[in-house]
Design brief:
- The protein has 391 residues and is of the alpha/beta class.
- It contains 16 helices and 13 strands.
Length: 391
């Protein structure tokens, strides 16, 4: 196993990339020392970073690769982030483009896509179908149960809270699970297959951990965490807790603030791919470039590559609807979770038909059947394509 961590930093035109990279290599590691420590120079040098490559890019940009000793960090993401970009993030334009870590660095996912399939009993070669409770706010726990009952009978695999919904009195988190649990049990009795409900966690760090434990003790079978709002250490703690033995889905809320600027922050692949996968996430949501948010395909594929390297489930999201299923599966194959909010809940024939439209689109892709509107028979998929198009 490698004993180094390598990070690619990109600098805009006009920045002395070698000088800045050298500042990172020294300033983010052991720093400098005077004559008092000359007798320990060999030991201190073992903690220094090293600039190992400088590459010229288009438009005068440069990329520098810095190699850090893995022994400088404790194997957790907090110390990693502090080392590779902590103080230096305040020093001017620079963006972390990629992070290469030792193979077993961080918290491994407990389930990943394979484990989620096992929990669901879905062994056939098809993508999983996931929905989001909508509207995001203003529903009671009973409303959640009624929505779930409608989509459960249509063959939904996973449902999640909207990430905006915290533990509010009108629909308290535990109450939402308790209202939905009988629906999930009934579906399991009817089909022999589970249905995962990723319940959204909120509160301070201690409350998040306690709520997760309470939910799992009450039978909850999946959790949702807004990692960038609550912190990577919270994700790591949840994933490492032996009593939280359920898949953890992570949401990309705030990722644009971390990644959106061209010359600052992190590349999406490093943040939503590498760091999420090394923090213990089992499934990671991120914008699909086909969808409703402006997102580059290159960023999407960088995320997917990093997730699949650790067995984590990719969950392309944001504006996904049945008409774009064939296009997504052309790119992803079947090892993916298709996540839709309005693309299921706002189907013109009802939410259950939204789920059926996804399954119909999957079957047509598997059969290599034509996808154009004129080739679709009357039914849920055709109604969806008439409303949203084909992506």
């Amino acid at each position: 196993m490698t004993t180094f961590i390598e990070v690619d930093y990109q600098f805009p035109a006009g920045i002395d990339a070698r000088r800045q990279a050298q500042a990172i290599a020294i300033g983010q590691t052991a720093g400098s020392w005077d004559a008092r420590f000359q007798h320990r120079e060999a030991q201190l040098r073992g903690h220094l970073g090293e600039v190992i490559a400088i590459a010229e890019l288009a438009a005068g940009r440069h990329q520098a690769t810095v190699r850090f000793p893995a022994a400088n960090v404790d194997g957790r993401l907090g110390s990693l982030l502090t080392m590779i970009f902590g103080k230096y993030s305040l020093a001017g334009p620079a963006k972390v483009m990629a992070i290469r870590l030792p193979e077993r660095f961080g918290q491994a996912p407990r389930f990943g896509l394979g484990g989620i399939r096992e929990r669901l009993g879905v062994h056939e070669q098809r993508p999983l179908v996931m929905a989001i409770f909508k509207p995001a706010l203003g529903l009671t726990a009973a409303d959640h149960a009624a929505i779930l009952a409608e989509v459960a009978v249509a063959g939904l695999d996973i449902i999640k809270d909207d990430e905006i919904l915290p533990d509010l009195p009108m629909a308290a988190t535990l109450a939402r699970w308790e209202a939905c649990a009988p629906v999930i049990e009934a579906r399991r009795d009817q089909t022999g297959r589970d249905l995962l409900y990723a319940v959204n966690l909120s509160g301070d760090a201690q409350q998040v951990q306690m709520l997760a434990l309470q939910l799992v003790a009450a039978g909850a079978n999946a959790l949702l965490l807004n990692v960038l709002a609550y912190g990577f250490p919270v994700l790591e703690a949840l994933a490492a807790d032996p009593d939280i033995d359920v898949p953890i889905f992570t949401h990309p809320a705030l990722a644009g603030a971390w990644c959106g600027a061209p010359d600052y922050g992190f590349a999406y692949g490093a943040l939503l791919g590498t760091l999420m996968a090394c923090g213990g996430a089992d499934a990671v949501l991120y914008p699909a470039h086909y969808g409703s948010l402006p997102f580059a395909a290159a960023d999407e594929w960088a995320i997917v590559a990093a997730l699949r390297a650790r067995g984590v489930a990719p969950v392309p999201s944001a504006g996904v609807h049945p008409g774009m299923v064939g296009r997504i599966l052309d790119d992803y194959g079947t090892e993916v979770i298709l996540n839709a909010g309005t693309g299921i809940m706002d189907h013109p024939q009802g939410a259950a038909s939204g789920v059926l439209a996804f399954h119909e689109a999957i079957e047509r892709w598997q059969d290599a059947a034509p996808r154009t509107l004129e080739d679709l028979p009357a039914g849920p998929l055709r109604a969806a394509v008439e409303k949203w198009g084909q992506g």
